[in-house]
Amino acid sequence: MKIITVDSYEELGSRAADVMGAQVIMKPNCVLGLATGSTPLSLYQELIRRNKAGILDFSRVRTVNLDEYVGLGIESDQSYVYFMRKNLFEHINIDMNNTHLPNGLNSDVYAECARYDAVIESLGGIDMQLLGIGHNGHIAFNEPADSFTVNTNCVDLQQSTIEANARFFAKADDVPKKAYTMGVGAILKARRILIIASGEGKADIVREMIKGPVTPKVPASALQMHRNVTVILDKGAASKL
Ligand code: F6R
């Protein structure tokens, strides 16, 4: 793992934009795996700025997102498809037809998981996958478990994840209890992985991800088995390394 430590959350965004921007420049029709949550916001702001400044061109870029809540679609402002449109896609010159997320409104779990795996496959796999990390070590919505997931699956969110994500909803009860998520196996198939973390609250789990044993109890520890991972941390997240 290549570990980069920066001073602030803003700098985290611009260093991550350097890494992701280099991917887009090297391969203009690359497949980017994208994430939602608080951590990527400074990165997305910087990608938008560079696109508007004519430094980055997304016209041929394809994207696949990690996850989506079951039961939510574009009409819900808590859905991940809505988040991606508002925080990135609507502000850059990407073709919306080239952006993909699991369809939270498809209640046929088997069909939706198979469809999403086929989408990733049809794009030729992921060139660079962006990840955040949950306080419990989850990547995408792959929660701590007894075994690693491989393909897209439908998960029951853990109480700690529901509580962590309640900040985006009116009340914790409104947080959906299930989500579609790319599997750990699919994430590990990405040719490059970029994982970002911010704040002291993530310091313990970042340490476990990098220095702890590889175990499905800490899904992010699986990244130790990948040959091309860049970790960008601000001072707080790196404070226990
Ligand atoms: C989001 C996702 C999650 C988040 C993680 C960290 O698409 O897959 O794994 O990356 O929960 O979230 P934040 O960045 O809000 O701390």
Helix tally equals 7
**Strand elements, count:** 10
- The value of Rg in angstroms is 17 Å
What share of the residues lie within helices? 25-40%
- Strand percentage, roughly? 15-25%
Could you say what the CATH architecture is?
3-Layer(aba) Sandwich
CATH fold field value: Rossmann fold
| Average pLDDT rating | 97
Q: How many domains in all?
A: 1
Q: What form results from the Cα inertia axes?
A: globular
**Helix-strand string:** EHEHEEHEHEEHEHEHE
Sheet with the most strands?
Answer: 7 strands, parallel
Straight-line N-to-C gap: 13 Å
Query: In CATH, what is the class?
Result: Alpha Beta
The structural class is alpha/beta
Which ions and ligands are bound to the chains? Answer: fructose -6-phosphate
Q: Strand order across the biggest sheet?
A: 1-10-9-6-2-3-5
Poorly predicted runs: none
Q: Would you mind describing this structure in some detail?
A:
The model has no long low-confidence stretch (mean pLDDT 97). With 241 residues, the protein is an alpha/beta fold. The protein has a 7-stranded parallel β-sheet, covered by helices on one side. It is 31% helix and 17% strand. α1 (9-26) packs across α2 (41-52). The chain has a single domain (2-234), classed as Rossmann fold. β9, α7 and β10 (229-234) form a beta-alpha-beta unit. The two termini are 13 Å apart. The chain has 7 helices and 10 strands. The chain has helices spanning 9-26, 41-52, 80-87, 109-122, 159-165, 184-189, 203-211; strands spanning 2-6, 31-34, 62-65, 67-69, 99-100, 128-131, 153-156, 178-181, 192-197, 229-234. The longest helix has 18 residues, at 9-26. The protein is globular and about 45 Å long. Fructose -6-phosphate (F6R) binds at residues 35-39, 66-67, 132-134, 138-141.
